[in-house]
């Protein structure tokens, strides 16, 4: 089946269609959990996040200090690579989780880490708080979700470039400069309240001054060392967050209101889980975004009877994803429809009839009505 044309912009016909068909701000499916269980899972605790934050920033300072001491010899390279992953990838998950306000019980701790992580990722903290709220309201709804990475057909070269942070960094700096002169992008205006525009502009101007100072220092010292500490790690350390983040939704259904159809849970090694802050439990996170990251394994154990089986590793997940992306690249309108266990509530074939019959891979032969 040939791929249908999709307009992923927030200003095009698909955005209008999503509103008209009831996909925008729809009522999503959630696995049944008792109120007592959910209250316990949502309980916040400073201790795990403080521990992880000290480990993160302590490690960054250690690797950076060794990198500076060994500069400019090749012996410094492993330390810069480690520093880069923590700066350009671990900060992505810290930006994400602290944007939800769930890791720390103390609100100001969430905000402090969120501000630092946003700066490292070159994502305006005001803009992206609203952008990510839209992502959760309209997850992978074409024309509504501003954070769709793997489109149909997939822009694989763009994804490849972002393994090195190139396009995301360029876009972040470009948007920062636009905001710094007092303007907002047309799509930003669709989801950022006007009362917040001045905050977007203020942050961009502060960041511009910081980056300008770093560049000036690099010119004065005739060395890229200042940029190795601030700025460049966003490029050379981005690969891990792209490697893990691509698995969140790639190859799955769009325009559905069941996170089991458009999100993926993948078991990962402890180091990747630390960098990723347990976002590998992604179906669980989208169903219940107010559950702190350190409680997601517990949530997974509680509701996995109602979810598609988790991929056992990143390798297994990519073996599932890549063949579908290749077919989508050849303009075949296919996606992966994960089979549910017999203990699960079925997908809503009444609402998703056109999607379920459109081109799913590993599609169940019959979907019983709810």
UniProtKB/TrEMBL annotation:
GO molecular function: oxidoreductase activity, acting on paired donors, with oxidation of a pair of donors resulting in the reduction of molecular oxygen to two molecules of water
Domain Fatty acid desaturase positions: 72-316
Record keywords: Membrane, Transmembrane, Transmembrane helix
Membrane-crossing segments per the record: 53-74, 155-173, 206-225
Pfam families: FA_desaturase
One GO cellular component term: membrane
The keyword DNA repair is assigned to this record: no
GO biological process: lipid biosynthetic process
InterPro entries assigned: FA_desaturase_dom, Fatty_acid_desaturase, Rhizopine-oxygenase-like
Keyword Iron (UniProt): no
Name of the protein described by the UniProt record: Fatty acid desaturase
Organism in which the protein naturally occurs: Paramylibacter kogurei
